[in-house]
C-alpha cells in the first residue's frame, strides 16, 4: 500500500492544503465545547446577557470557519482521490499494454480488468476516506485528550480505560478481515472470468444447448462471492455495535462520576458538558480510525494486486539504443530459430532457418500444432526467440524498437478482430491518415468493396463490437483491407483466407500478387490451393522444417506435403 501511495507525489500541494484545512476544522470543533461551557457557567448562571451574545457570536464565527474548512477538505479530497485513481488507471493500463502475450497468458485477462477497475476504486475510496476523515482523527484525538485534561484531569482515567479496549476490538476485526478481503477479490476475478466467457461465447453456448449448465456455473461463482461478502459484512457489522456500546458506556460513566464531582463542588456543570463533548470527540476520532483500520486491509489487498501489475517487468522491451536497417526492402531471415512456450515440455519451433526476400511470396503450411502461427508471431516479436535470431533487412528484431518493427509489417491475424465504429474507421486503423481513395482501393483489393457498397451507409456503416454484425468472411476481408491500406514492406497473413469461398480466395490472391509485388509476403494457410502458386512453401512438422520449395518440388520430394495435398485436392487439380 505504501509503495502505491508514492504516486500521490504530484498532489502534494493539494494534500498540504487538506492538512491545513483539517487542522483548522478540528481546532474549531475543539474550541466550541469550551465556549459552550463559558456560556453555561458564566452567562446562564450569572444572567450575563452581553457575555452570552458575545460568546454566542464567537461560536457562530467558529462554526462558520469549521464549515468552510469542511467544504474545502471535501473538495480537495475528492480532487486528489479521483486524480490519483485516474493516474493509477492510466499507469496500470499502460503497463498492461506493454505486456507480451506471455504476461497476458500468465495473469489472465479477467483479473487484469478487475485490477484496472475495482481494485483501483477500492484504493481511491480509501485515499478519500483518509483525506476526508481519518487524517483529522489523530489531531482530534490528541486535541480532545488535551482539552479534556484541561477541563478535569480526574475524570480522564475513563479515557485511559476505554481507548485500549476499543483499539483491541478494532485490531481483532481488521486481522480477521484481511484473508476475507483477499478471498473477495479472488471470487470477483472468478465471477468476471465466467461472465466474460459466457458473453463472448453465447453463440456456442446456445448452439450446444448449454445455457442451463452455464447458468449453474455462473450461479456457483455468484454464490461463492456472495458467501464471502456476507462473511465480510457480518464482520464489519459487528464493529459498530462494539464501538457504540463503548461510547455509550463511557458517556454514562462520565455523567455518573461527573455528577458526583459536581455534587462535591469539584466541578461545574459547564465543565461537565464540555468534558462530555470532548469525550465524544475522542471516541468519534477513534471510530474514524477504526473505520480506517477496517478499510485499509481491503485496500491493501487491492494495492498489492495493482503493484503486481506495475512491478511486472515485460519480457519484451525496446533496446536502450535501437538500430534501424540501412535499407528498407523488407527482407526477412530466420537464422537457427528455436522457441518454447513457458512450461512446455518440447520446443514449439526448433532450428528454423530460411530467407524471404522482397517481392517473394512465402507460404507456411503444416498440420495443426506444427508451429505455423508461432513462426510469424516471432517475426512480430509477440514473443522472443530462445536461440537464434530473426533479421529484418539485416537487423535483429530484438535490436529494433517494437514500434519501428511493427510499422514495417501489415498483420492479419487468424481471428479477424474488428472494433466498434464504422467500416472506414476499421480500415483506417491500419493507417490513421489514410484518404478516402486509399480506403476504397484497399477494400477493392481485399474483395470487400462489393458488400461494403451494398450496405445502406457504405463505408460509414456501423460495425458492432467484435464485428458481430458481419459474417466471418466479411470480417476477414476487412482485416485484410486494414493491413493493405498501410502499404508495409512485409505482409503477414495468418490463415486469413479460411472463411472465404474458393472463388473469392482465388480473386483475392490474384489481386494481392499485383498489390504486394514489391513486398515480402508470408501466408500461413491450411489449404493447399491457397499456397500452390507461392514462390516458396515451407512445410512444418512438429516444429521443424520438413521441406521447403515450390509446389511441384514438394509434390515430388515431401511426403508430408503430398499427403496434405492429396487429402484436399483431386488428382487433376494437383497436376
What does this structure look like?
The protein contains 20 helices and twelve strands. It is of the alpha/beta class and 575 residues long. Among the domains are: 2-310, ABC transporter transmembrane region fold; 416-487, P-loop containing nucleotide triphosphate hydrolases (Rossmann fold, 3-Layer(aba) Sandwich). The protein has a six-stranded mixed β-sheet with strand order 6-9-10-3-11-12, with helices on both faces. Helix 3 (49-98) packs antiparallel against helix 5 and helix 9 runs antiparallel to helix 10. The chain is elongated.
**Which runs of at least 5 residues are low in confidence (pLDDT < 50)?**
none
* Largest sheet properties: 6 strands, mixed
Q: Please, what is the average pLDDT?
A: 84
Report how far the terminal alpha carbons are from each other. 70 Å
CATH class of the domain at 2-310: Mainly Alpha
Helicity range: 55-70%
CATH topology of the domain at 2-310: ABC transporter transmembrane region fold
Q: Could you tell me the number of beta strands?
A: 12
CATH superfamily of the domain at 2-310: ABC transporter type 1, transmembrane domain
Number of helices: 20
Tell me the CATH architecture of the domain at 2-310: Up-down Bundle
Q: Given the helix and strand composition, which structural class is it? A: alpha/beta
What is the structure about, briefly put?
Helix content is 63%, strand content 10%. The chain is α/β, with parallel strands linked by helices. The strands form three sheets. A six-stranded mixed beta sheet has the order 6-9-10-3-11-12, sandwiched between helices. It has a four-stranded antiparallel beta sheet with strand order 2-1-4-5, covered by helices on one side.
Amino acid at each position: 500500500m505504501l509503495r502505491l501511495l508514492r504516486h500521490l507525489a504530484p498532489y502534494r500541494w493539494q494534500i498540504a492544503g487538506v492538512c491545513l484545512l483539517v487542522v483548522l476544522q478540528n481546532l474549531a470543533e475543539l474550541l466550541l465545547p469550551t465556549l459552550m461551557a463559558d456560556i453555561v457557567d458564566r452567562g446562564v448562571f450569572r444572567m450575563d446577557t452581553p457575555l452570552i451574545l458575545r460568546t454566542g457570536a464567537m461560536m457562530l464565527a467558529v462554526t462558520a470557519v469549521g464549515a468552510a474548512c469542511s467544504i474545502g477538505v471535501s473538495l480537495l479530497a475528492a480532487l486528489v482521490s479521483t486524480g490519483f485513481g485516474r493516474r493509477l488507471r492510466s499507469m496500470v493500463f499502460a503497463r498492461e499494454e506493454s505486456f507480451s502475450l506471455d504476461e497476458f497468458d500468465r495473469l489472465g485477462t479477467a483479473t487484469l480488468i478487475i485490477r484496472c477497475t475495482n481494485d483501483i476504486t477500492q484504493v481511491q475510496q480509501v485515499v478519500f476516506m483518509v483525506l476526508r476523515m481519518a487524517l483529522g482523527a489523530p489531531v482530534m484525538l490528541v486535541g480532545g485528550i488535551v482539552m479534556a485534561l484541561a477541563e478535569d484531569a480526574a475524570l480522564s482515567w475513563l479515557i485511559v480505560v476505554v481507548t485500549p479496549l476499543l483499539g483491541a476490538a478494532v485490531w481483532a476485526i481488521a486481522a480477521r478481515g484481511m484473508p476475507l478481503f483477499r478471498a473477495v477479490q479472488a471470487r470477483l476475478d472468478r465471477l468476471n472470468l465466467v461472465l466474460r466467457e459466457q458473453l463472448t461465447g453465447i453463440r456456442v453456448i446456445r448452439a450446444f444447448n448449454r445455457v442451463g449448465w452455464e447458468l449453474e456455473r455462473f450461479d456457483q461463482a455468484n454464490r461463492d462471492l456472495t458467501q464471502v461478502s456476507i462473511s465480510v459484512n457480518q464482520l464489519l457489522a459487528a464493529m459498530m455495535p462494539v464501538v457504540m456500546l463503548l461510547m455509550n458506556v463511557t458517556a454514562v460513566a462520565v455523567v455518573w462520576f461527573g455528577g458526583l464531582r459536581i455534587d462535591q463542588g469539584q466541578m461545574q456543570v459547564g465543565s461537565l458538558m464540555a468534558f462530555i463533548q470532548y469525550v465524544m470527540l475522542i471516541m468519534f476520532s477513534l471510530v474514524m480510525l477504526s473505520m480506517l483500520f477496517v478499510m485499509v486491509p481491503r485496500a491493501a489487498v487491492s494495492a498489492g494486486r495493482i503493484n503486481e501489475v506495475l512491478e511486472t517487468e515485460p519480457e519484451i522491451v525496446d533496446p536502450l539504443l535501437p538500430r534501424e536497417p540501412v535499407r528498407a526492402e523488407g527482407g526477412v531471415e530466420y537464422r537457427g530459430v528455436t522457441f518454447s512456450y513457458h512450461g512446455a515440455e518440447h520446443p514449439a519451433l526448433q532450428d528454423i532457418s530460411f530467407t524471404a526476400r522482397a517481392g517473394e511470396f512465402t507460404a507456411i503450411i503444416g498440420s495443426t500444432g506444427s508451429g505455423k502461427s508461432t513462426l510469424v508471431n516471432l517475426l512480430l516479436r509477440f514473443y522472443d526467440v530462445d536461440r537464434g535470431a530473426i533479421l529484418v533487412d539485416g537487423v535483429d528484431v530484438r535490436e529494433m524498437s517494437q514500434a519501428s518493427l511493427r510499422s514495417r509489417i501489415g498483420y492479419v491475424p487468424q481471428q479477424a478482430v474488428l472494433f466498434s465504429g464504422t467500416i472506414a474507421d476499421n480500415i483506417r486503423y491500419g493507417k490513421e491518415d489514410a484518404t478516402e481513395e486509399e480506403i476504397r482501393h484497399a477494400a477493392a483489393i481485399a474483395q470487400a468493396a462489393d458488400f461494403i457498397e451494398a450496405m445502406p451507409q457504405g463505408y460509414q456503416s456501423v460495425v458492432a463490437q467484435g464485428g458481430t454484425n458481419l459474417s466471418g468472411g466479411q470480417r476477414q476481408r476487412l482485416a485484410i483491407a486494414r493491413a493493405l491500406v498501410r502499404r508495409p514492406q512485409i505482409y503477414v497473413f495468418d490463415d486469413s483466407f479460411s472463411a472465404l469461398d474458393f472463388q473469392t480466395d482465388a480473386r483475392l490472391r490474384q489481386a494481392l500478387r499485383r498489390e504486394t509485388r514489391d513486398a515480402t509476403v508470408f501466408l500461413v494457410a491450411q489449404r493447399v490451393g491457397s499456397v500452390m502458386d507461392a514462390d516458396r512453401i515451407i512445410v512444418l512438422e512438429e516444429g521443424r522444417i520438413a521441406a521447403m520449395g515450390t509446389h511441384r518440388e514438394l509434390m515430388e520430394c515431401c511426403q508430408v506435403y503430398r499427403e496434405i495435398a492429396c487429402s484436399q485436392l483431386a488428382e487433376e487439380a494437383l497436376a
